[in-house]
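Sanity check

After download, print the first record. It should look like this:
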Amino acid sequence: MRLLFLLSLAFIVLFLSGCEMGRAILAGEKPTIEVKEEKAYINGVLGKPFHNKFKKFVAQNPTIKTVVFENVPGSANDEWNVKTCVLLHKSGMNTELKPYSEIASGGVDLFISGHKRTIAESAKIGVHSWSDGKKGGIEYPKDSKEHKIFLSFFKEIKMDTSFYWYTLRAAPAESIHWMTKDEIELYNLRSE
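Expected structure tokens:
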């Protein structure tokens, strides 16, 4: 759903701002998981390759309970990303953003799946509506089947669905909204 948007956004981000996130999406950067100081540090675009890598990582590293997000620009496949979100949550893991962290779209979905969520002051969190290539998520009625995967996921991780509806209103699929400190607090993204 978000692939077309991510490619468009990557092009804009890369050429207008030269940011690392845009380069990652355009390059199809393979996701990475690296262990440092008893924490898993992740980077890259989420989707099926990341899910498979993360599933294997969780099985092989049962003592790692914190995932640190560095540059996670989004997901190339929402269905696989939701599976990863549920896996992270069921594994009892915590999530953390460092001062230099930059996450967006599906990266935010994965971040909120943590039990304890830590956010450094200058970390960047970007949200927007999803798109299926025909319409943006906000254009579908609230009781539409298109929302089911996300609403079920929010219920599974015990996150208030008001945050989901906010992301749809925050920016259209072809744009991004960087959350303010007040918005982060309002939607309880920081759990400590």
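If your output differs, re-run the checksum step. Summary of this record's structure: The longest helix spans residues 3-17.
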